[in-house]
Amino acid sequence: MKIAVISDIHSNLLALEAVLRDIEAREIDQIYCAGDLVGYGPRPNEVIELLHQREIPTLMGNYDDAIGNMRFICGCDYKNEEAIKLGEQSILWTKEQTTEANKKWLRELPQRIEFTAAGIRFLIVHGSPRQLNEYLFENTPLEHFNKLLIENNCDVLICGHTHLPYYKSTAHGHIINVGSAGKPKHGNPNALYALVDVTDGILNVNFTETPYNYEETAKEIEEFGLPQEFAQIVRTGQ
């Protein structure tokens, strides 16, 4: 069983298209999306519609919840007043641009996907099984990871939300954060996703970076009137 998991696309259509082309070139059994389709980027409707058309099982992220349900905030952990103001601009612009049909689709997305492959129980969420916007960072205490695995009766917990990829093995299972396809923070602008291979009961995890024309996305962000800071993140991956 080979699966690909993408997350945190954030309205970056070119990154999503590049990732899907890369996945299609491999022998993948199933693709999943762990949420946050929209926000920050210039193409919310096109990203939603592409995932919908491809019938890719997709979760609700905290940003999808905010736009689909017309909330004032996205539940992000902003560090200062400037970040809060930028986040408000992103929410307002994205709500105005996203069609009513696509908002309806976002608010009907599930908050978890569960399946079993080769006897291994998988759970995919956006933030954590407890909350859409809970951050599970690599330095989260192992005790917390183990508690989540036990509480949710799973062997592998897959998440996104932090935009930082990692794989951890614990006493009670495995934690995989797949990073971000469209708004990466792992140190370079390439789109990122995770490949998970289960062979003979053994789990293998690889993070795949996919180059794309990030400069075009950055220019669109600026041309569409979104903050220049969002374009800088796309250009630098930081």
TrEMBL record:
Domain of life: Bacteria
Any one of the GO CC terms: cytoplasm
EC number(s) reported in the record: 3.1.4.-
Keywords linked to the UniProt accession: Metal-binding
One MF annotation (Gene Ontology) recorded for this entry: phosphatase activity
Statement: the UniProt record of this protein carries the keyword Ribonucleoprotein: no
This protein's record includes keyword Isomerase: no
UniProt cofactor(s): a divalent metal cation
Annotated signal sequence range: none
Residues of the Calcineurin-like phosphoesterase domain: 1-200
InterPro entries: Ap4A_hydrolase, Calcineurin-like_PHP_lpxH, Metallo-depent_PP-like, Pesterase_MJ0912, Phosphodiesterase_MJ0936/Vps29
Family label: Belongs to the metallophosphoesterase superfamily. YfcE family.
Protein name: Phosphoesterase
Annotated organism of origin: Desulforamulus ruminis (strain ATCC 23193 / DSM 2154 / NCIMB 8452 / DL) (Desulfotomaculum ruminis)
